[in-house]
Every structure is written in structure tokens, then in C-alpha cells.
Queue: 3 jobs
Job 1
Amino acid sequence: MRDPKALPFDHCPLRPIAGTALAQAVPAPANAIFFSRSDAGILANVVLLGEYVAQLVVDQTGRPAPTIAWLTDPARPNSDPRTTYPELACGVAAETLTA
């Protein structure tokens, strides 16, 4: 995303979430956005249709990850997507992705 010569996939690859804790926290066909911590800093995690996740470093200052998440369900398009669902907002499910 920052290097005009690189493909976007090089910076933010999609990975399948099947078999991880994240797959249970965001069942298909839901979408989610939440933050987690890794050695690289705070990651923004975007789950697409309950199948894939993309992670991007958004902060490297050492601050704690925000404890808010958004979970959308296409079956309930008018519901409030904000959540403090612990598996998302605290990044617990993301631990299996950043290990």
C-alpha cells in the first residue's frame, strides 16, 4: 500500500481463518474489524465473510490495542455493528494468527 511498485497483496495478504478461534468468533458470512497486538505493533484485523483475514500494522508506539470491534451480519443489516465481544475486542482470537 505504501510502495507504488509492490502489489497490494504483498503488504496485506489474505489468510484463511478455517480451524482458528477467529473462525468461531466471526462465523461466515459475517465481517469484522478489530485490533490486536503483535511484536510489530497494533494490528488492524479485517475478517472478510468469515473466511479470510487481512492484518495491517497501524501503530508502533507501544500503546495498548483499542478494545472496540465491529461485527456485521448480512442477515441483520440494520443491527449495530459495534461490539466489545471479548474474542474480538481484546484480540484473543487473533493470537492464533500472530503466533
Job 2
Amino acid sequence: MKQFIRATLLLASAFSLAGQTPALAQCKVGRTSSAFGFWTWAANSKIKVYTLGSDFTEIELPFVLKPLQTWNAVSEVTGSGVKFDYVGSIAAPLYCENCLTIMRGEVFDKTRRHATELRAYSAHGDQIMTWAQIVIDPVLTNPEALTNAMAHELGHNFGLVDCYSCKSKSTVMIQFKTANEPNKMEGPTACDVAQVQAAYKELAVRVRPSPTVKEVVDEGEEPEDDDTPVVIKKP
């Protein structure tokens, strides 16, 4: 536990040193960085997190919850101010304001190699989530892969979309090679932090309509050998 806390603090320090943010010149959408424009929690929200019944074993649960801390660690530097607070286990999913339920369910997609799914609801019909659920397919059993999948789904909670063409370890939004093979992504990268920061800067200016089905799966842009900086996709 002490090692995990220390690692979390180091992650936060890496992005806040001298008030600096990651160099955008190294982050390219579709190559090392995800685009944004997906579902998002309102800025500065405190999200109450629950797990459903006995869906996760005592061994699995710490791996499922670990990414909550890695994303909490960069809350301030991303400008989101969003923090996750694990409350405990419940008997049925909750549909309350700023509630996130983590549960099991059959959502495996062989084509996209997705074994998890974000289900969200917005009371105002826009991209701001009122409540959400992260559904993890029973096929996903490897503890480390559970952590990686949760880190990915929490990226969706901050507006990031899938990036299937992104390089390995460049973003938590990359595709899994196989459902139960860990990809070593336990939390946001520097480019993820930069994109969430950009997403919340936009959010302060305008709120997008509810994401469309097309935005749910974004295979990214084809990588090119140039030095083009991050380009924010607009609908």
C-alpha cells in the first residue's frame, strides 16, 4: 500500500513540477494522443463510486479501484477538479447525481477487443454526465488487465475517445491486443493529461450535445511522420 501511495504522489508531481504542463509538441492525435469530445463529469465534481454486490472478488477489487487514485492524482493539473470517492458495495446500480457504479455485464466485442463499456446519462441532454456505469465483461479476469481496462474507461469519463492507431503506452485509450492481456497502462499519460486539460478548457467555454454513436468508437487518425502538434477535433 505504501508503494502504491508513493507511486500516486510521484505521478502527480511529474505533471505539476514548477506549474508546467506536458509538451504538446510530443502529443499527436491519432499517434500518441486521443481526441476528446466524449462524455464528461462537470468540473470540480465529487463522484461517489460504488461496486455492485459480489461482482468482484476480494482479490479483484483493489485492481478495479486502483485507477481511481491515479486519475485523482492528476485532478488539479488537468483542470478538471474531478475526484472519485469509493463508497462501497451496493445491491443495485444507483441513478443519482454524480454516482458511478462499477459492475459486471456481458459487453465483450471481439471486433474492437473491448471487454468494458461506459453507460452514461445526462439530465440535460448534453455531454455532462449525471450518472454513469462502467460495465466489465466476465471474460475479463486478469487482475492487471482489470486495472488497465478501468484506467481506459475512466479516460472516457474525462472526454477522451478510443485511439486504436495510437502507439503502445502513449495513452490509456489504446486498444487491447487480447481481452485478458495487460497493456501496462495503470493511469493517464502526459498526453492524456494534456488532452483532458484541453477538454476542460473547452468545457468552460461551451458544452457539447450528447455524444453520438460515431463518437463512441474513434479509431483515431492514421499516424504521419511529421511534427504536427495536437489538433483538437471539432464536431
Job 3
Amino acid sequence: MATKTDNKTPTPEAQLRSWINRFEPKDQKLIRSMRTALRKRFPTANELAYDYTSHVVIGYSPSDRGIESIVAFDARPEGMRLYLMQGPQLPDPKKLLMGSGKQARYVSLETAGKLAHPDVEALIVAAIGRSKVPLPSKGTGNLILLGRAAKPQPRRRPAK
């Protein structure tokens, strides 16, 4: 007699959906619309999703490495941020970029429609141009879950 195996491992999309479902309904809607807009903008990029305790980060990368992402959005209960890699080097005549990170800067977003604003689009185009790894010219990117982020390790050994 053949036995049926139950494969209860959720798909990556189902797992990401469960991470998003922790947010308030209005925030869930914004996260989904951000994903749709960025997936449309970066169809060949991989979506790299990170689950943190209080927020979710989804990056768009030509590879499976987060450090090579071109943009990422950070969904938090207190708001959304679009991070642009190479941020300190991007031309920003309107002074939209915030933060002081060495690799990335961000723009606060209230709606996914703000991604299409000409000033934000110019920043995205500049970030694409500064990417060290080019986006694939064809194909479709994958959703890659990178799970719960590990706590950062200390950079130096503590003094004895």
C-alpha cells in the first residue's frame, strides 16, 4: 500500500506572506504594493527577504548576495524606507537621501506611488548605474528567504 507523504514545508512566498501578516492591515497593503512596484521595476533581480523581530527587509539584487542589492525596502510599523545602495555616492540635488551609512542611504515612503516620483526614480537609476554587479538582461528573479537575521557579531575581541 502506497503512503502519501505530506510535505508541509511552506513555499518561500507563503513564508514571506506570514512575515508580512504580522503587520497591521494598512501596512500589509503598503508592503504588498511596494513589492509589486519594485518587482515590476526590477523583473530580473532576485528578491532577498530578511525577517527581523520588528521589521522585514526585502532587497533587489542581481545575485543571491544582499551586499550586491541595488535597492531594498525596510518595512517597519513606524514606516517604510527605500534604501539605495551606494547612497553616499549618489547625486542628490534635492537632498532626499537620509541617514549616514557608509554603503546606503534611504528615502522615507508613505506610498508605493512615491517610487515613480521623478526625483526618486533618478536616485534609483543612479543606484543601478553604480551597481558593481549588473542586473541580468533577461529572465525572472527568484524570491530568496534569508530567514531571521543573526545578531551582529562584535568586530573586535573584548579586552581581557
